[in-house]
């Protein structure tokens, strides 16, 4: 005969299970928070200094939940994660925080004072417009340096496509060396780095443009839907992180306008696309009900996790510049041609992860060039659709 345990025995058993799960990393019984430390490829030493086990332990004690922490210097992948709210906590450079702050996160603060970035060129280049047809040295596309370069060029009416070449490397300081060697015409550096280099190399280069202040070091954001007490405890922990974690303390709180400027200078798509109709989520819903096809151009992982109900998957593999003058030949959108039953005469809608995501913009432009007659672009993508409560699936 089986006798059910008394309530006190059940409570004791539950406590024991929780303790065992905590010690063994059992995430089934305890909800686990996830954190991403995104490191500029230009600052890899910062990643090596972070002691993951100590940071996970400290965050777990602060939040009252197990925490899994990952690090990455693939900023393109991290930016995709911010657009899909892929982690509970992001610790990274300003552009990572700027993207997350538009998608349900709140700012804890930053670890270093704000910096200005300078577009510097050889002395014979007298102004930014004279960069047309010239060479530019930058770190990878999603680096903060590249964000600043794009913004300063755009303000002068130039696109990256107006340049003769954009060379993407790992370290921005090497751009200054490239200037001295004559292998590039311009680069972007932090104001402090420029001051030191210019003093040692007088007459080599000049400042062509200066950015507005940008939050420095790491910025930390957490999901707004975490319990308020957990968010407060996490903020307190980040404000006085133990030296054993390798994470610098978050002691500054930059103005929200600084993050908005970073986002606007970075990867925002245009508000219109010639030959393609830009639509809202409500309009997309109506078109779907009338028989249109909605093509989700994100990664397969994102599509499986959450998608617009009824969407079909065709990944746009993006390698070209995030720019109105992108080179489609550098990208891979063969998936469009493989979609079964897609009729070029019928309406087709392209969507991805919102205004910062260029995949649907590029996909819509490519489809129009391939002869699709009724091409629509849902610029707000899944975030706009989800924000007004329209049906989703997956996960």
UniProtKB/TrEMBL annotation:
CDD domains: RHOD (cd00158). GO terms for molecular function: thiosulfate-cyanide sulfurtransferase activity. The keyword ATP-binding does not apply. Pfam families: Phosphonate-bd, Rhodanese. Residues 1-31 form the signal peptide. InterPro entries: Rhodanese-like_dom (IPR001763), Rhodanese-like_dom_sf (IPR036873). Residues 288-394 form the Rhodanese domain. The keyword Signal applies. It comes from the Bacteria. Keywords: Signal, Transferase. This is Sulfurtransferase.
């Amino acid at each position: 005969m089986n006798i059910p345990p008394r309530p006190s025995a059940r409570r004791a058993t539950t406590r024991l299970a929780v303790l065992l799960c905590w010690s063994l990393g059992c995430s089934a019984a305890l909800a686990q928070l996830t954190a991403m430390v995104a490191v500029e490829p230009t600052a890899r030493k910062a990643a090596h200094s972070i002691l993951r086990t100590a940071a996970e332990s400290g965050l777990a004690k602060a939040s009252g939940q197990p925490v899994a922490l990952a690090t990455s210097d693939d900023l393109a992948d991290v930016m995709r994660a911010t657009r899909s709210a892929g982690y509970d906590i992001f610790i990274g450079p300003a552009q990572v925080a700027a993207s997350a702050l538009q998608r349900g996160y709140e700012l804890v603060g930053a670890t270093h004072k704000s910096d200005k970035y300078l577009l510097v060129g050889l002395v014979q280049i007298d102004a930014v417009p004279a960069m047309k047809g010239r060479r530019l040295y930058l770190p990878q596309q999603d680096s903060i340096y590249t964000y600043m370069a794009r913004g300063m060029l755009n303000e002068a009416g130039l696109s990256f496509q107006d340049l003769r070449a954009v060379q993407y490397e790992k370290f921005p300081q090497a751009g200054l060396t490239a200037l001295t060697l004559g292998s590039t015409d311009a680069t972007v550096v932090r104001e402090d780095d420029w001051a030191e280099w210019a003093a040692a190399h007088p007459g080599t280069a000049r400042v062509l443009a200066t950015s507005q202040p940008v939050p420095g070091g790491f910025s930390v954001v957490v999901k707004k839907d975490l319990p308020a007490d957990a968010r407060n405890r996490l903020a307190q922990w980040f404000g006085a992180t133990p030296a054993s974690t390798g994470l610098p303390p978050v002691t500054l709180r930059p103005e929200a306008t600084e993050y908005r400027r970073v986002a606007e200078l970075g990867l925002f798509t245009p508000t219109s696309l010639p030959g393609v109709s830009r639509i809202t989520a409500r309009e997309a819903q109506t078109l779907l009900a009338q028989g249109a096809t909605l093509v989700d151009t994100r990664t397969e992982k994102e599509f499986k996790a959450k998608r617009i109900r009824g969407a079909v998957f065709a990944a746009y593999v993006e390698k070209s510049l995030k720019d109105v003058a992108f080179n489609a030949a550098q990208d891979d959108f063969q998936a469009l041609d493989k979609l079964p039953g897609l009729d070029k005469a019928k309406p087709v809608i392209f969507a991805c992860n919102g205004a910062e995501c260029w995949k649907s913009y590029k996909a819509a432009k490519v489809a129009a060039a391939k002869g699709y007659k009724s091409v629509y672009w849902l610029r707000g993508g899944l975030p706009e659709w989800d924000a007004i409560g329209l049906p989703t699936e997956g996960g």
